[in-house]
Amino acid sequence: MGNDGGSIPDRRDLVRTKKKAEQADKHNQLIARWFFCALSKRPLQEPIVSCALGKLYNKDAIIEYLLDKSAYGDGEDICGHIRSLKDVKTLKLTPNPSQVPEGADAETHARFICPLTLKEMSGGVPFLYLATCGCVFSQAGLRSIATSSPKDDDEKDICPQCSTKFTRAKDLIALNPDPEEQTRLRNELEARRAVEAASKPKKSKKRKAEEAGAEPAPKRTAADSKAAPYTNHAVATSRVVANALVAEEQKRKALMSDAVKSLYAPKDGTAKKETFMTRGTFTRYA
Ligand SMILES: [Zn+2]
């Protein structure tokens, strides 16, 4: 390889270029995505589930994660968007009937195929699943049996495997999409969650109001006749306002009675605290 006078080595022979390393890395990533659980990094074993971002997981790993969020060190980064088993779909996969070739790595032999095109699911061709039933097809296979035009978003399609209805516009989720698509899906998911979260506080406010309304109720019945006019007056207004008024009235009375009590406290008790500054000036506080 040079230095013997026979040939002149150039940079290409001596330096392992980055490109080769990148290619090997890409291949490893492909294997990792299609043959291993994204969370536990163990080989995919049925039942296999997928999330809204199209990543593949072993269902037991997801359950483990949901029970203990720290079960996997980087669990929050990988599937922080999975809050419950409702956020994943169990996939219905078609087993690959072909045997592992002699000498081939069993772990990287495609175990599933598209039931329509019989293409192997190994990252070579794009695959997707239906969010409604979890059936997995190759993109090309599902496109070939398209019954409605892709522009017609509202029209329902029927799953070619289990006849469950689905909407082409929103129920098709690509498995292991490219990073750009994954980012788009993640943003979409976050936007959807934000809308959900924005609609929730209304409910909790209502609940708080109900709780606030329920708590002071016994006090109202215990309140003496002086408080009654306030509650009667407030009947026309909301129950919450009435309860707030009662609570306020009671607070005011409690404060007042303290002040009044201090006036009528035992003489020897007050005499000790009294100084020339306060002597005979109690009327200021009444
Ligand atoms: Zn189906």
UniProtKB/TrEMBL annotation:
Pfam families for the chain: Rtf2
GO CC aspect terms: nucleus
Biased segments, Basic and acidic residues type: 9-20
GO biological process per UniProt: DNA replication termination
Positions of the UniProt region annotated as Disordered: 1-20, 191-229
InterPro entries according to UniProt: Rtf2, Rtf2_RING-finger
Family label: Belongs to the rtf2 family.
Protein name as it appears in the record: Uncharacterized protein
